[in-house]
Each structure stands twice: as structure tokens, then as C-alpha cells.
Amino acid sequence: MFHNPVAFVGRRLLGWARTLGGVVVLVQKTVYWLFKARPDVRNTAIQMNEIGVRSFPVTSLTALFTGMVLALQTGYSFRKVFNEPLYVGTVVGLSLLKELGPVLTALVVAGRVGAAIAAELGTMNVTEQIDALYTLGTNPVRYLVVPRFLACLVMVPLLTVYADLIGILGGFGIAHWRLGIPAPVFWDEINAIGLEDGFHGLIKSVAFALIIVITACYKGIRCQGGAEGVGQATTSTVVVSMVMVLVSDYFLSSLLVSLGVG
Amino acid sequence: MIRLQGVHKAFGANRVLRGVDLEIPEGETLTIIGGSGTGKSVTLKLMVGLLRPDHGRIWVDDTETTFLNEDKLFEEQKKFGFLFQGAALFDSLTVAENILFGVRNLRPELLANARGVVEQKLGFVGLKPEVALLKPAELSGGMKKRVGLARAIAHEPKYILYDEPTTGLDPIMSDVINELILSLQERLKVTSIVVTHDMKSTYKVSNRIAMLHEGRIVAEGTPREIQSSENPLVKQFITGSSQGPIQMAVRHA
Q1: Are both B37 and B73 inside the same structural domain?
Q2: Percentage of chain B lying above the pLDDT 90 cut
Q3: Domain check: are B60 and B97 in the same one?
Q4: Partner residues linked to B211 by β-bridges
Q5: Is A180 inside any structural domain?
Q6: Three-class SS string for A27-62?
């Protein structure tokens, strides 16, 4: 199989091209069905609950402790340099709003929701339920992908805002009670953060939501090979979406900064 | 009438169908037999438009469906009911919701009496109305097949396609499903295409049998003609012998 390196590289390139083409077609069909037919409200609400509401506990825990550790590390590090725990509010606020809030929320959602979507759609595919949808007059993209797409697009930014708030509260707790920073000092620093810094994080969270939902739906719908295939689709959804979130984070940040957003 | 002309279908390097010609007149029950992996299920999926042929043409009634766009194909798909091998019931929905799923999209006018539709279709397949509220996970294999059949006939299709209807069932339940197929033919006067390798089932339900081998139809006839066929491929298949022209993978091992 690997005798001819040119053939091997060619096969890999064709495989990537096919995947990229498949993803583009899926996005195109999703957008088409999003506007062609009224979205299924019941299904979308179920997905919003699954993707958003049920991710709240794990997102809260992640954001709370991230905010806490951020305040702790900033406080002690700056105390070594400046003899005072300066700028803890600014560092906690900016780091959470611009980076950690959107990225950590996206990683939590990729692990929890991306895997669940890929497993559910993958199982439906290998048990012919997706074929059954066609024969019963329903387009699977409309019935399965659009509600998940909408739910992710709405809930991931909301989760991000929530994670920002919880993280800042966690940071405040440590800054105030452990580092002895007066509350008005901390909140003045938070209030001084510009609205565009919040937008910077929110725009990225929308992009991350798109990456996660499209990866998960694509892997699920294209899944083949029984239980093993479902397992592979699930694992690869988590790995691919997490890596893409982290890689795209740099490029998106770079783009947004150059456009003056945050 | 469904007609396939010179249909080819490949998946990568695997050329599954290599020129299938088949015609199924109205009211007939045709059974397609053949070994595992010969493309029987692929043929069914091509008929209903779940797959598109690489070459060849397919007609449903007077409409050629080979190149139809999704909207037009959808109109043709309304004519079909499909019983999948594993029933393919939607896990998250109840039996009633499963049965009404196609009705909602394909025959919404029937929804005025949704409860009646569910009870009538469950009755057709020999299930009690109480089953309507159960989830697929609470059903046995045979019950799942019956519910799958109730769902397939709920929008009153003209053609019913059965993909391995008796696979995985015990002999008694297999015969119950065979009886159901026969009774649906008599009561609903539908055209049926059955894909199976269960010869007992084949003889019981078919008006005509076609055998698929290496991507082509190699024999066609009434059950009686097939039983008395001198074609060595047919003889080997219907007697279930490992000796003969059909080389199964195990013999190369």
C-alpha cells in the first residue's frame, strides 16, 4: 500500500479534498435548509437544552476555578515583581473575556456536546435511521443538523458570557479574600475593560460553535462501520474540533486585533 | 411499475452492481435473492432514490428518477414504504410518533385522525394499541420489525420495499412476518420488492424471484421455475451448498 510514496501522498490529498468538499456541501445544505423551511422549534429547543443548559454545570466549574487560579497566580507573581498584587482585576477580566472564556467553553462543549452529536448521528447512520428519514419525506440536514446548528450558535456564546461572569466572580473571591485587594479596586479594573474586548471573545465563540457543530455533524453523518465507526467518529470529532478551536483561536485573535476589535 | 436498465453502482473500487436490468409490474411481489454483499440492498436503495446509479437508468411509473433533483425525487419517494433490515425506528420517539412521522410529511391530511391511523396500522401488523406509547428500546426484535412495517405502510404507499425482513428473527417470528407480507399484499394491493436470502420466506411471499450474482441478474422466474432451475448458480444458492460455482470468501481462507 505504501510502495509508491507519490500515490500515498496523492491518496491523502484526495482524502483531504474530499473531506473539505463534504464539509462545504454540508454547510451549504445547512444554510439552505435554515432559510428554506421554518426550523423545527421543538427539536431546536431540545438541542438548546442538551447543548446549553446541560453544559452549564461543567462550564461553571471550569470557569470558576480558572478565574480563581488566574487571580492567585497573577497576584502572587505580581507581588514578587511589584511588591503589590497589582492589576489582578485587569488580568483576570481581559484573560477571561478575550481568551479563556471562549476557548475553555469551546473545549468543554467540544468534549461534551461534539462527542454526543457525533455519537448520536453516527448511530443513526449505521442503524439506517438517516436513510429512514429520507424515505419518510424528511431531509436529514433539516431535521438533524439545522436544530443542532442553531442551538450551538445560540448557546455557545451564551455559555461563554456565563463562563466569563463566573470566572470573574471566582477571580474576585481570591483577589479579595486571599490577596486582600479591596473590592472597589478589583471592580474598577473590571469596569475599565472596553466593550470591544467582550465582543472579541463573543465573535470567537460564534466561530468555535460553528467549528464544533459542523465537525460533529459531518463526522456523525459520514460515519460508517458499525459500533467501531461510531467510536472513531466520536473520538475524531473531539480531537479535530479541539485542535481546530485552538489553532483558529490564534488566527481569529490576530485578525480581530488587526481590525481593532479588542 | 419500477424499471431498472443497465444499472451500475460502485463504492470506491468495489463494483457492486454491473448492469442490472429489472422490471417490476404493478401488483407483483418480486424477491431478489443472492449471497451477502451481492448488492441486493443497494438495488433497493437505488429504486427509492437513497443512492444514485453511476450508470444506467431507473423509472418509477412513467418518471425517470435517475437524475431528479431532491424536490422532485421527494414526490416519487412518497410512493414508497421501506422496511429496513434493523427496522431503523427512531429511538427518541414513541411507536406512535414513529408511525406518524412519515404521515406528517407525506400525507398530512391523514393526521386529522392520527390516533385512528396509529391503531389501524398497528392492527395491520398484529400489535395492540397499547404498544403505541412504548419506545423502540422496549420492543423485541420481532415487534420492532412489525412497527417498522406499520411505519412503512402508514402513508399508504404504492410500493413496499422489504430489506431482509426475516433476518435475525426466530423461525416462528419469521413466518409471522411472511404472513404479514402476504396479508398486506392482499389487503392493500401493493407492489412489493423483497430482498432476502431466506429461501423459505422467498417461496412463501413471491410471485417472481430474481437472483443477483456478481452485480447482475443471473436468473428470473416464478418460485416453481426457480426451484426447478438447471442454472448451477441458482441450484447452489437455493440448496445452500458450499460446493459449486459461487465462491464464498471462506473457501479462499
Answers
A1: yes
A2: 65
A3: no
A4: B33, B219
A5: yes
A6: HHHHHHHHHHCCCCHHHHHHHHHHHCHHHHHHHHHH
Same domain, B58 and B97: no
pLDDT at residue number B251: 46
Strand partners, B162: B83, B194
Residues of A in contact with B149 (CB under 8 A): none
Cβ-nearest to B77 among A127, A128, A134: A134
Look-up of cell digits 411481489: B29
Q: What is the pLDDT of residues A195-218, one digit of tens each?
A: 999 999 999 999 999 999 999 999
Q: Which positions 67-126 of B are in contact with A (Cβ < 8 Å)? A: 70, 74, 77-78, 80-82, 84-86, 88-91, 101-102, 105-106
Q: Are B187 and B149 in contact (CB under 8 A)?
A: no
Rounded to whole angstroms, how far apart are CA atoms B11 and A200? 45
The answer to whether the CB atoms of B78 and A137 lie below 8 A apart is yes
Phi, psi of B221 (to 5 degrees): 175, 180
If one counts the domains in chain A, the total is 1
> Of the residues B157, B180, B202, which one is the last residue of a structural domain?
B157
CB spacing of B84 vs A132 below 8 angstroms: yes
Looking at the structure, do residues B122 and B235 belong to the same domain, yes or no? no
SS (H, E, C) B116-166: HHHHHHHHHCCCCHHHHHCCHHHCCHHHHHHHHHHHHHCCCCCEEEEECCC
Chain A CB contacts of B74 under 8 Å are 137
Q: Give backbone dihedrals phi and psi of B4, rounded to 5 degrees, phi first.
A: -115, 135
In tens, the pLDDT along A91-127 reads 999 999 999 999 999 999 999 999 999 999 999 999 9
The reply to whether residue B88 touches residue A138, judged by beta carbons under 8 angstroms, is no
Check if B193 contacts A (Cβ < 8 Å): no
Residue ranges making up the domain that contains B69 = 1-79+160-168+190-253
DSSP A6: H
Cβ pair A135:B80 closer than 8 A: yes
Q: How far is CA B219 from CA A126, B24, B200, B235, in A?
A: 31, 15, 18, 11
Q: Which helix (H) or strand (E) holds B59?
A: strand B55-60
| B219 beta partners | B211
| CB-nearest partner of A137 from B50, B85, B105 | B105
